[in-house]
Amino acid sequence: MNSPLPSFENHLPRRVITGRGASQSLAALCQANGWSRVFVVSDAGVAGAGLLQQVVLPLQAETFAEVPSEPPIEVADTIAARIRASGADAVIALGGGSVMDAAKVASLCARHNKAAHEFVGIGKAGGRGLPTVLIPTTAGTGSEATFVAILTDPASGNKVGVLDPCILADIAIVDPALTDRLPVHITATAGMDALVHAIEGFIAKVATPLARGLALEAARRIGRSLETVCREPGNTAARDDMAIGSHLAGMTFANSSCCAVHALALP
Ligand SMILES: [Fe+2]
Fold first, then answer.
1. Rounded to the nearest whole angstrom, what is the distance from the C-alpha of residue 196 to the centroid of ligand 1?
2. Each residue of 69-115: pLDDT tens digit?
3. Which residues, chain by chain, have CB under 5 Å from ion ligand 1?
C-alpha cells in the first residue's frame, strides 16, 4: 500500500511570459504595472551582443551592465546603491544566471536598505524586494524561475546562497530569440546544466509531484534538442525547446532539490 501523501508547498514566479519576441513587450509591461522608472542589470557580453540595446532601449532606463561571471557578493551592494540613487521602482535583469542572481539580491538590498551579506542563508529576506523582471539570455541556469541566488564571498572564495521565496520574479520573460546567437560552448554547457537540473530535481527524495511533472517535460524537450541545437545553432525550433526546457528545469529544482552533481560543484 502507498504511504500517505506528504504535505508539500510549491513556489513559482508570480507571472511567466514566454514566446519568440516576448521581450519586446517589456516597455508595455512596465507601463501596465505602473513602474515609471526602472533600473536595468546586465553584463558586458549581453551588451556586446546587442541584446541590451534591443530590449531595453525603449525604456530609457539607467543601466548597470558590468556584472562579472561568478559575481562577488559586493556587486549586489554596488547595484543597490545605484538603484536607490536612481529612484527606480522596479529592477529588470537581462542576462544569464550571474546577472539574474545579482539583480535578485540587489532588489532586496535596495528595498530593505541592508547589505547583501545580511540576506545570506535560508529565509532571511524579511519581505519582497523591489519588483523584478527576469529575462534570461541563456538556456541553462533557470534562475528566472527560482528563489535561489548564488554569489561568491571573495574573502573565503566560497559560494554563498540567498534562498527565499521573496526573491522569486514578479515577471519572468522567456524569449528564445534572445538565445539564437549564443556561442556553441555556452549553448552546450548551459544546456547540460539544465538537463541535470531536470534529472536531479526528478530523482530527489524531496521532489514534489509538481516538480516531477515539470522535470519530465523539461527532460523531454532538452533531451530531444540539446545535441541538435549544438550542431545547428540556427535551428529555432530546437532553441525554443531549450529555452522552455531550461525554464521548466529551473522550476523543477526550485520545488525539489539538486543532488550529488551540483554538490560536487561546490568544492
Ligand atoms: Fe545548475
1. 7
2. 999 999 999 999 999 999 999 999 999 999 999 999 999 999 999 99
3. 193
CB 44 within 8 A of CB 66: yes
Question: Which pLDDT does position 2 carry in this prediction?
Answer: 64
pLDDT digits (tens, 9 = 90+) for 44-63: 999 999 999 999 888 889 99
Span from the CA of 139 to the centroid of ligand 1 (angstroms): 11
> Phi/psi of residue 169, each to 5°?
-60, 140
Q: List, as one string, the DSSP characters of the chain.
A: -PPPPPP------S-EEESTTGGGGHHHHHHHTT-SSEEEE--HHHHHTTHHHHHHGGGT-EEE--PPSS-BTHHHHHHHHHHHHHT-SEEEEEESHHHHHHHHHHHHHHHHT--GGGG-EES---S--S-EEEEESSSS--GGG-SEEEEEETTTTEEEEEE-GGGS-SEEEE-GGGGTT--HHHHHHHHHHHHHHHHHHHHSTT--HHHHHHHHHHHHHHHHHHHHHHH-TT-HHHHHHHHHHHHHHHHHHHTS---HHHHHH--
Nearest one of 136, 145, 224 to 177, comparing CA atoms: 136
